[in-house]
Amino acid sequence: MRSLLLICLLIGGVAVAMPSIFTHYMEPSGRERPARAAAAEASPEVEVESPTSRREAASRLVEIKAERDGHFYVEATVNFRPVRLMVDTGATVVALRVSDAEAAGIRIREAEFVYPVQTANGTTKAAEALLESISVSDIELRNIRALIVPDDQLAISLLGGSFLHGLRRFEVADGTLVFEN
Predict the structure, then answer these.
(1) What is the pLDDT of residues 100-158, one digit of tens each?
(2) How far apart are CA 166 and CA 25, in angstroms?
(3) 122 has which bridge partners?
(4) β-pairing, 73-78 with 81-87?
(5) Do 82 and 74 touch, CB atoms closer than 8 A?
(6) In the prediction, which pLDDT does 58 show?
(7) In the chain, what are the domain boundaries?
(8) How far is CA 77 from CA 45, 74, 101, 173, 177, in A?
(9) Which of 80, 91, 141, 155 could disulfide-link 166, Cβ–Cβ 3.0 to 4.6 Å?
(10) 3-state secondary structure of 21
(11) Residue 68, SS3 per DSSP
(12) CB atoms within 10 A of CB 138
C-alpha cells in the first residue's frame, strides 16, 4: 500500500513538472529569444516572422481605387524596377510590353517570339519569360511567368493571372480592388 502511494505521488509530481520542462525545451534558445522580443518591443508595427513559418505571418493588404476609366492601375516593380501595369483579371499571365520588359532588365531576341496570343489589337506572337519578382506596394511574389508582347500590340503592360493567382485572395468591391497575401 505504501509503495502504491509513493508511486502515485511520484507520478503526480512528474505530471506537475512536465509542462514547465516541456516549455523550457520547446522555446527558442536564450540568445534568440531576447533578439526577437527586443525587435518586437522596439517597433510594434514591425512584424517579426517565425523562422519556421512565413505563411503564418499577418496578412498584407493592398487596396487600389479604380481610375476614371474604370480600370485598376498599379505602380509595381518588376525585377526591382518600376513599371506601370493595368490589372487584368481576364489575362492568364502577366503580359509586358517589350519596352517595359527591357526597362526591367529582360532582353528578348526576335526568334523567341513564338507563342501566339490574342490581344485587343488582334493576334500576335509573344516571347515567354520568368520574372524574378513583382512587387505591388508591400506584396512581393517571385518567379512569375510572363509573356513579352510587341509594344504596338499592347497599349499598357498587364498584371494578369500568373501574379493574381499567387495571392491569398483578390477581389473587387465598391470600386476598390483588394490584394491580400
Answers:
(1) 999 999 999 999 999 999 888 889 999 999 999 999 999 999 999 999 999 999 999 99
(2) 36
(3) 119
(4) antiparallel
(5) no
(6) 66
(7) 2-42, 61-180
(8) 24, 9, 11, 25, 18
(9) 141
(10) helix
(11) coil
(12) 9
Report CA 126 to chain centroid distance, whole Å.
Answer: 26
% pLDDT > 70, the chain: 68
Where residue 58 falls (left for φ over 0; alpha for ψ -120 to 50; beta otherwise) is beta
Strands 139-149 and 94-97: parallel
DSSP 70: S
Output the pTM of the full model.
0.67
Q: Which residue has the cell 509595381?
A: 76
CA atoms 24, 25, 28, 31: torsion sign: positive
Any idea which fold 61-180 has?
Cathepsin D, subunit A; domain 1 (2.40.70)
pLDDT tens column, 52-84: 334 445 679 999 999 999 999 999 999 999 999
